[in-house]
From TrEMBL:
Tree of life domain: Bacteria
Function field: ATP-dependent carboxylate-amine ligase which exhibits weak glutamate--cysteine ligase activity.
InterPro entries: GCL_type2/YbdK_subfam, GCS2, Gln_synth/guanido_kin_cat_dom, YbdK
NCBIfam families documented for this protein: gshA_cyan_rel, PRK13517.1-2, PRK13517.1-4
Catalytic reactions of this protein: L-cysteine + L-glutamate + ATP = gamma-L-glutamyl-L-cysteine + ADP + phosphate + H(+)
Protein name as annotated: Putative glutamate--cysteine ligase 2
Keyword Heme assigned: no
A GO molecular-function annotation: glutamate-cysteine ligase activity
Enzyme Commission number(s): 6.3.2.2
C-alpha cells in the first residue's frame, strides 16, 4: 500500500474520536508529568483499554473504537474516563481538560519520550516548546478518495462554527489573552500546522505529500498537522478544529456536529450537488474571528462576503443537520449544541469566574468539576 496514494475507503460513515485530558496536582492545580503512571496502571487493571501517551507527559489521550455514531463513541469514552479517574484518584491526582491550561509554565512540562516529538522541538524551538494545547480529533469514514478534498474544503467554510462552540482556552501564562481560543493561534505557529491548502483533487494531495517527504518535512514531524486532513490509512477525514472540552456532555455536542457535517456534505456529493467553498482569505479571516471572538464573532458566510453572527449561524446549521442526525441516530447529541449556546462556551464560563472575583485556580477547579458534573 502506498501510504500517500492509497486511501482505505470506508463503506460506511464511521466515527472515531480522540479526546485529550490531563493530570493535575490537586493542590497547585498545575499540570504534572504523571500521565504514563496513570496509563500503565489503567491498562494493567483493565487490559485492552485504549489510552495513548501524547506529546507531553501530562496528557492522556482517550481513543474510541470504530463507532457508528456519537452515542457509541461517548459511551466508550465515558467507560474509559471512569477507569482513568479511578486510578488518578488513587494516585492523588485530578483530571482536567480544556484547549489550554491558563497558567502552567511550558518550560516545566517535559515531552513524552518519542523520537518524532523530539524532532519537532529540535526543528521548531520556541514555538514548538509552547504546544501546551489540547483538542478534539474526529475521524469520519469516507467511501472514496475523490470525495475527500471537496468535503474538506466545504468543512473549512464552517471552521468558526466548530471552533466558537468549543473554544475554551482564553488564558495563557496567567493572562487573559483576549482570545476565545488561544490554542488556535498558538498551534498554527508550527510549520506543518494550520489551515490545509484548498487541494482540488486527491492527486494534488498525493503530489504535495510526496514533496513533503522529498524535502524532509515528514521525516522530521511524522505527518502534516492540518486543522482538517485526510487519514488515508483509516479511510477517514480527520477534523481537528475544536478545542478540547472540559466534559463529555459538550464533547458529545461537538462530535455530533462534526460527524453530521461531514456526512451531510458527503450526501450532497452523492446527490450531485455543489459543495460550498470560500476564498482562502475568507477562510483565514473566519478562523481568526472564531479564535478571537468565539460565539460573539461575526463571520463571512459567502463568496460575496455576506456576514452573520456565528451564534445565529449555529442555530441554522443545527436545524439543517437534523435529518442527517436522525439517520445517524444522534439527534439528542446534536441538540446538546443548543445547550452550549444557552450556557455559554468554555471560554465564556471561565471569564465569568474571573469577573466574579475568582482567579485562574478557581477556573481550573471549575473545569475539573465540570468533567464530573456535566456527564453524558
Amino acid at each position: 500500500m502506498d501510504p500517500y496514494r492509497d486511501f482505505a475507503r470506508s463503506p460506511e460513515p464511521t466515527l472515531g474520536v480522540e479526546w485529550e485530558i490531563c493530570v493535575i496536582d490537586p493542590e497547585t492545580r498545575d499540570l504534572v508529568p504523571r500521565a504514563a503512571d496513570v496509563i500503565d496502571a489503567v491498562q494493567q487493571r483493565y487490559p485492552g483499554t485504549h489510552l495513548e501517551r501524547e506529546f507531553l507527559q501530562n496528557t492522556i489521550e482517550l481513543v474510541t473504537p470504530v463507532c457508528t455514531n456519537t452515542r457509541e463513541a461517548i459511551d466508550a469514552l465515558q467507560q474509559d474516563l471512569a477507569k482513568v479517574r479511578e486510578v488518578a484518584t488513587e494516585q492523588d491526582l485530578k483530571l482536567w481538560a480544556g484547549g489550554g491550561h491558563p497558567f502552567t509554565d511550558f518550560r516545566e512540562q517535559p515531552l513524552s519520550p518519542k523520537i518524532t516529538y523530539e524532532e519537532i522541538i529540535n526543528r521548531t524551538q520556541y514555538w514548538g516548546q509552547q504546544m501546551l494545547l489540547w483538542g478534539i480529533h474526529c475521524h469520519i469514514g469516507v467511501s472514496h478518495e475523490d470525495k475527500v478534498w471537496p468535503i474538506i474544503n466545504a468543512v473549512m467554510t464552517k471552521y468558526p462554527h466548530l471552533l466558537a462552540i468549543s473554544a475554551s482556552s482564553p488564558g495563557w501564562e496567567g493572562l487573559d489573552t483576549g482570545y476565545a481560543s488561544n490554542r488556535t493561534m498558538l498551534y498554527q505557529q508550527l510549520p506543518t500546522a494550520g489551515m490545509p491548502y484548498q487541494f482540488q483533487n486527491w492527486d494534488e494531495w498525493v503530489g504535495f505529500m510526496r514533496d513533503q517527504k522529498t524535502s524532509g518535512v515528514i521525516s522530521h514531524t511524522g505527518s502534516m498537522h492540518f486543522d482538517v486532513r485526510p487519514a488515508a490509512k483509516w479511510g477517514t477525514i480527520e477534523v481537528r478544529i475544536s478545542d478540547a472540552t472540559s466534559n463529555l456532555r459538550e464533547l458529545a455536542a461537538i462530535v455530533a456536529l462534526t460527524h453530521c457535517l461531514v456526512v451531510h456534505y458527503d450526501r450532497m456529493l452523492e446527490a450531485g450537488e455543489e459543495l460550498p467553498t470560500l476564498q482562502p482569505w475568507h477562510v483565514a479571516e473566519n478562523k481568526w474571528r472564531g479564535a478571537r471572538y468565539g460565539l460573539e464573532a461575526v463571520v463571512i458566510t459567502s463568496r460575496e462576503t455576506d456576514e452573520r453572527w456565528v451564534s445565529e449561524e449555529l442555530v441554522t446549521l443545527i436545524d439543517e443537520l437534523l435529518p442527517t442526525a436522525k439517520d445517524l441516530g444522534c439527534v439528542e447529541e446534536l441538540k446538546l449544541a443548543e445547550e452550549i449556546l444557552e450556557r455559554g462556551a468554555g471560554y465564556q464560563r471561565q471569564r465569568r469566574i474571573l469577573k466574579q472575583g475568582g482567579d485562574w485556580t478557581d477556573v481550573v477547579d471549575n473545569s475539573c468539576q465540570e468533567m464530573i458534573d456535566l456527564t453524558w
